[in-house]
Amino acid sequence: MQLTHEHEEIQRTLKRFIAEQINPHVDEWEAAEMFPAHQVFKQLGDLGLLGLTKPTEYGGMGLDYSYSVVMAEALGDIACGAVPMAIGVQTDMATPALARFGSDALKREFLAPAIAGDAVSCIGVSEPGAGSDVAQVKTTAKKVGGDYVINGAKMWITNSLQADWMCLLANTSEGAAHKNKSLIVVPMKTPGISVAKKIRKIGMMASDTGLIHFDDVRVPQANLIGQEGMGFTYQMMQFQEERLWAAANAIQGLLNCIDHTVAYARERQIFGQAVLDNQTVHFKLAELKTEIEALRGLTYMATEHYIAGKDVTEWASMAKLKAGRLLRTVPDACLQYWGGMGFTWDNPVSRMYRDGRLASIGGGADEVMLGIICKFMHTLPARR
Ligand SMILES: Cc1cc2nc3c(=O)[nH]c(=O)nc-3n(C[C@H](O)[C@H](O)[C@H](O)COP(=O)(O)OP(=O)(O)OC[C@H]3O[C@@H](n4cnc5c(N)ncnc54)[C@H](O)[C@@H]3O)c2cc1C
User: What is the tens place of the pLDDT at every residue in 117-129?
Assistant: First the structure.
C-alpha cells in the first residue's frame, strides 16, 4: 500500500487534532466513563474525516479504503482505546452497509449527518443471548401497516447512550437464520427504546456501552437498508471493514506502548544498569516490534485486496486475529518492565493492557476468526 501526499496529510491533520483536542481530555473522560461524542464527532466532521470512503453526494470524500486504514492507524495515537473505538463505530462499523445499500432518502436522512458529525451512530448486532453466533439474534421487526414494530434487546452497544441512530440487525421473518434478517436504521429517540443499563467494564472506560431494550418500537419500513432478508449477508460484509479497521487501529498504539516502555526502561536503574540494558529486555521489545510491523504488512495487504474488489474475509480475519493477539502480548510484556508502576491505574501501558483485551472478544472473538480462516483452509469437520 503506497502512501500518497493525501494519506500523509490525513495523518498530519489527525496527529495535530489528537494532540490539541483529544489527548488533553482523555484522563478526564476515562474517569467520567463517558466522552462527549457529539462534540468530538462535530470537530472531526468539520475536518472532513468522518466520511473519507463515503460517497461525495452525502458529504463524503469518495476515497478508497486505504484512507480509512490510514485514519484508523493514526487514531492509535489517542491515549486510550475508547475514543478511537467510538470513532471507528461511526466510520467503519455502523455506516458501511447504509452507504452501500441504503436508499437515497435514507442516506440523506442518516448517513449525511453522520458524515458531517451532526449525528452519532451505533451498531446493534449483539444481544444478551447472541454474540459470536450472530445468526441466533432474537430481536424481531414485524411489519404492521407501513412500519416495522421492533421488540427485543441489544447488548454491549458502543456509543448507544449518546447515539442518534442505530443500525439494527433484526429478524424480519421466520425461516432460515441466514435469510430472515434485515438491517434497519432506528432513530434512538423513538418511543419504546430504553437504556436498560450502562455496562461497567474493565477497560475502554470512556466509551459508553449499553444494554438497550426495544418495546413495540415503530419505525417506517422505508428505514430498511437494502433488501429485506439480506441483513445477515450485509452484516458479514460490514464486518470486513470493522475487522480491517480494528487491525489498522492496533498498530500505532502498540508501537507507542513499546516506545513508552523503552523510555521508562532506559531511565529505570536496577542492579547498576538501566532495565533496558538487559539483553532479554531489548531483545523482547525488538521481537514484539517485528510482530507489529508484520501486522501492518498483513493489514496493508488485506487492504490492497479489498480495494481491488476481492473477497478479503480470510485476510481481514487473519489481521483481526493477529491484532487481538498482539494487543494482549505486547502490553503484557511491556507492563512487566514497568514493575509496580505497570500495575497502577494511570499508566499508559496498563490502560492499553485493559483496553486491548477487548480486541480478542469484540467484533468476532479470536475463535470466530480462527473458524473463518479454517473454513477457507477447508480444515473444518463437517457439521453434524
Ligand atoms: C466493550 C464492548 C463493546 C462492544 N461493542 C459492540 C457494538 O457496538 N455492537 C455490537 O453489536 N456488539 C458489540 N460488542 C459485542 C461483541 O461483539 C461480543 O461481545 C462478541 O461478539 C462476543 O459475543 P459474546 O460476548 O456474546 O460472547 P459469546 O458469543 O458467548 O462467546 C464467548 C466466548 O466463546 C468463545 N467462542 C466463540 N465462538 C467459538 C468457537 N467457534 N469455538 C470455540 N470458542 C468459541 C470465545 O472465546 C468467546 O469469547 C461489544 C462488546 C464489548 C465487550
Answer: 999 999 999 999 9
Residue 311 has pLDDT above 80, yes or no: yes
Q: Check: CB of residue 235 under 8 Å from CB of residue 183.
A: yes
Average pLDDT over residues 32-60: 98
200 C-alpha to ligand 1 centroid (Å): 16
Backbone angles phi, psi at 166, to 5 degrees: -120, 140
Residue-wise over 276-292: b if at least 16 C-beta within 10 A, else e? beeeebbebbeebbeeb
Strand partners, 213: 153, 194
Cα-based torsion angle of the residue sequence 43, 224, 152, 368 in order, rounded to the nearest 10 degrees: -80
What letters, b where the CB count within 10 A reaches 16 and e where it falls short, cover 156-178? Answer: bbbbbbbbbbbbbbbbbeeeeee
Distance CA 114, CA 6 (A): 22
Share of the chain above pLDDT 90, in %: 97
pLDDT at 41: 98
Taking CB atoms and a 6 Å cutoff, what residues make up the pocket around ligand 1? 89, 122-126, 131-132, 156-158, 201, 204, 209, 358, 361-363, 365, 367-368, 371
Q: How far is the CA of 363 from the centre of ligand 1 (A)?
A: 7
Averaged pLDDT, 76-81: 98
- pLDDT tens track for 338-355: 999 999 999 999 999 999
Alpha helices in the chain (DSSP H): 5-17, 26-32, 37-46, 65-74, 82-88, 96-101, 104-106, 112-116, 231-267, 279-307, 313-337, 348-355, 366-377
